[in-house]
Amino acid sequence: MRKLGKYSRSVSIIGVGCTPFMNTLEDPETNGLTESELFGYASIMAMKDAGISPKDIQVYFHGQAASVPTSDQANANVHPNDWFGTHGLGSYSHQQACSTGYLGLDLGVQSVASGKNDFVLTGCVDMGSDVFAPGKPAHFREKLTNQGFVAMVARSYDRAYCRHFEAGSFIQFDDYNVLYAKEYNLSKDQMDDVLNALAISNRRSAARNPLAKNRKEYAELAKEAGFDDVMEYMRSPEHNPMLSHTMRRSGFEDRADGAAACILCPTEIAHQFKEQPIEVLGVGNSVVEAMHPHLELEGTRRAIGQVYEVTGVKPEEIDLLLGNDFFLSSSIMSAEESGYLPRGEAWKYILAGRTAFDGDKPINTGGGRCSFGHAHAASGMADIYEAVTQMRGKAGERQVKKLPRTVLIRGFGGAQNICVPILRTVDGGGK
Fold it and tell me: Rounded distance, CA 299 to CA 419, Å?
């Protein structure tokens, strides 16, 4: 494992902002919004949360999963500059598929830690449920079909030397499920129940999250469909069909449009601002190309090992775990590989309800990709928003029982990027 160096100075988050995750085409009030407007909205929220103005920002980072195929624009960082009051400000564009948001945090932290900048805005945006209309202005959008989405994702893979994304859905979707079930002697039905229980838990969180795309619990949907038992509803081929050997519709991302952002500054001055600052202790990174078997598992192990080594944080110190779960089973991987849950025991915790927002080992309290919604690049930054919201005790109905002091976030993107930040509450911070 490659070791990381320490930051030259400590960096903290002092402001966060996040738009609702939604399908903009479905609502006349949002139909016609562009990525630039969404990015500006989240950025203004983050600055307001921090209590600073646009003139305080010295640079911003703009993240999008892949701006050309979704937006038909290159150099996406230049377009939103005037939307949040930073006319003429220097900025950087970066694209790392669905890991973009986590890496956006890392890039912003490095900018402050180096001493080059004191106040950095880093944000991400994507419109995952729709796509640009060819030949028309940017506010004209069309629904993104599954076929179109798969064609976009295929660009993340080296089609000359590694397996193609479209080579077979079973390879992509079922890899970890099959490994896990085999190693711990779970039957197909048991694994199905575990994933269904996790989906139910995440939807309970999303139903209590005003920014979530899906606000109706599965228990309520089951009753509407005539089921007395929500698990029977989840096993129903009609209402929750299998899309691969082991994963149902409820276990896959629900594409959405949205943006999120955060404001960073040196920890030594973070207490001057109005909200509780959250320190970024460190970030682990790994990239494992798709030609390698079990790429997500290997990359997760490497990145988590890095961040534990550089921060000195122990697994037992983690109070909350958040992570990219466009495949729902990724939550199990993240929990066990980080030591947040005992190896081989996560499935038991899930079935017992212990990973719910009101359990003793909460995971993905915002609702996760399958219920909160997945706006690709923006989703990782939305995890930062959720972590900070929980750590400040401002999550409302979905607030976890024990105020989290230390949070581990595991990012994963279709370009095989793994990024793992660890956040910690700054003692005595906030006005």
Answer: 9
Q: Give the mean pLDDT of the chain.
A: 93
Which of these CATH numbers, 3.40.47.10, 3.40.50.720, 3.30.310.40, 1.20.1090.10, describes 11-157+254-270? 3.40.47.10
- Which token pair is 76? 């996406």
Q: What is the dihedral of CA 300, 301, 307, 313, to 10 degrees?
A: 120
Using a cut of 0.90, tell me whether the model's pTM lies above it: yes
Instruction: Express each pLDDT in 184-200 by its tens digit.
Output: 999 999 999 999 999 99
Which backbone phi and psi does 185 adopt, to 5 degrees?
55, 45
Nearest-angstrom CA–CA distance, 17 and 63? 15
CB within 8 Å of 221: residues ≥ 6 apart: 233, 239
- How far, in whole angstroms, is CA 226 from its chain's centroid? 33
Conformation bin of residue 360: beta by default, left when phi > 0, alpha when psi is -120 to 50: alpha
Chain-centroid distance of CA 190 in Å reads 27
Domain boundaries, the chain: 11-157+254-270
Query: Which residues, 6 or more positions from 318, have their beta carbon under 8 angstroms from its beta carbon?
Result: 338, 339, 340, 406, 407, 408, 422
Pairing of strands 59-63, 120-127: parallel
Distance CA 5, CA 21 (A): 36
pLDDT at residue 260 greater than cutoff 60: yes
